[in-house]
Amino acid sequence: MIITRAPVRIGLAGGGTDLPAFYEQAGGRVLNAAINRYVYVVLSANRRGGIQLTSSDFSAFLNFDPGADLDSAGDSLGLVRAVLAEFGVSEGVDVFTASETPPGTGLGSSSATAVALVKAVSTFLGQQLTDHEVAERACHIELERLHSPIGKQDQYAAAFGGFNVLEFTRAGAVSVHPLDIAPETVGALERRLHLYFTGVQREANRILRTQSDNAREKATADSMAGLIELAALTEAALLRDDLDEVGRLLRVGWEKKRGLASGISTDQIDGWIAHALGNGALGAKLTGAGGGGYLLAMAAEGEEERLRAAMLQAGLKPLDYRFDWSGARVLMNSERRAWVPV
Fold first, then answer.
1. Residue 159 and residue 120 share a domain
2. Rounded Cα–Cα distance for residues 54 and 94 (Å)
3. Catalytic site residue 154?
4. Contact 24, 152 (CB under 8 A)
5. Domain CATH for 260
6. For position 12, which CATH number holds?
7. What is the pLDDT of residues 211-258, one digit of tens each?
8. How confident is the model at residue 339 (pLDDT cuts 50, 70, 90)?
9. Is pTM beyond 0.85 here?
């Protein structure tokens, strides 16, 4: 038996510039951070010869005969099937997946699942992949095999963990630059940077397709260039421990992003963000593609409890978290028959 996990992430700046439609024109730059909410994969060999797939998040269960064609999408277990097909595994395994966060909430749980699956299957086959190889393999499966209209930041956040600046070339190459943030700054971020669940789960692909379709419009290209610049400014603010500036940049970034495609924001979302800004937040935005999911807000120093109480009153549930520094990990490998300390 092999058990792996991979973290989800929060996007701080530059989100959207990791979409191929954007970085193929002018490159891209994203700043994100992994948090301690995880996707888990349990993979075990079986003696039946077939394949059994189970997802707790989608309440889905499938059985396949040995040698069955797994390389087809169209169901909630399409990602699991695609990863097995990518590695040529067509018989003799059971795979179970589960996430600590609901799907469709803007934290990158789908790509974290892809990363945890790649980590599990490659370990099962005795392949020792680097973090970069794990992330890129997950990107290939999601973007090329499944033709998902997504970007590349979530996979790298899940594989590497920590705070990272990701740079995307026009050719699609990704460079990862971990940020060495002072421990005091990390602690202050965990206290002041809040996540609130809106209760709205959405299909991100429609929004992302619209963003990509709009990529060659001048107004969209200008906004994306501004988001790349904001990623650099946010990085600088974090490194000098200026969290007030990080909060203000969140607000600027959201104003740029909400106009990239219809559905990113709604009157209800605008109301929630205005409510946060009126109750102690310096900046607020939705994580991920938009349309729902989690709201990320930077509280002013000393306003943390006021903001929390106000958002609870508005019906949004806080998600307490810490940052993750380990990225994708093998927690158990039956070859060693031991848990890896968490």
1. yes
2. 8
3. yes
4. no
5. 3.30.70.890
6. 3.30.230.10
7. 666 666 766 777 788 899 999 999 999 999 999 999 999 999 999 888
8. very low
9. yes
Average pLDDT of the chain, as a whole number:
91
> Are 176 and 56 contained in the same domain?
yes
Q: pLDDT tens-digit profile of 19-76?
A: 998 899 889 999 999 999 999 999 999 988 999 999 988 888 888 888 777 765 456 7
Domain residue limits at 305: 183-318
Shared domain for 91 and 191, answered yes or no, is: no
Q: Could you tell me the CA-to-CA distances from 3 to 102, 107, 122 in Å, in that order? A: 20, 21, 12
- Dump the DSSP string for 276-304: HHTTTEEEEEESTTSSSSEEEEEEPTT-H
For residue 219, the surrounding DSSP H or E stretch is: helix 218-239
* List 18, 57, 154, 324, catalytic entry: 154
Whether residue 154 sits in one domain with residue 243? no
In terms of domains, do 119 and 255 share one?
Answer: no
Residue 267 near residue 244, CB atoms below 8 Å: no
Residue 28 and residue 13 in contact, taking contact as beta carbons nearer than 8 Å: no
Give the per-residue pLDDT at 219.
61
Nearest partner of 323 among 155, 178, 166, 189, judged by Cα: 189
> How many CB atoms sit inside 10 A of residue 244's CB?
14
Examine the domain organization and report whether 286 and 175 are in the same domain: no
Task: Indicate if 24 and 156 belong to the same structural domain.
Answer: yes
Q: Which amino acid is at 255?
A: E
Total domain count, the chain: 2
Are 202 and 148 within one domain? Answer: no
Contact 110, 138 (CB under 8 A): no
Residue 162 three-state SS: coil
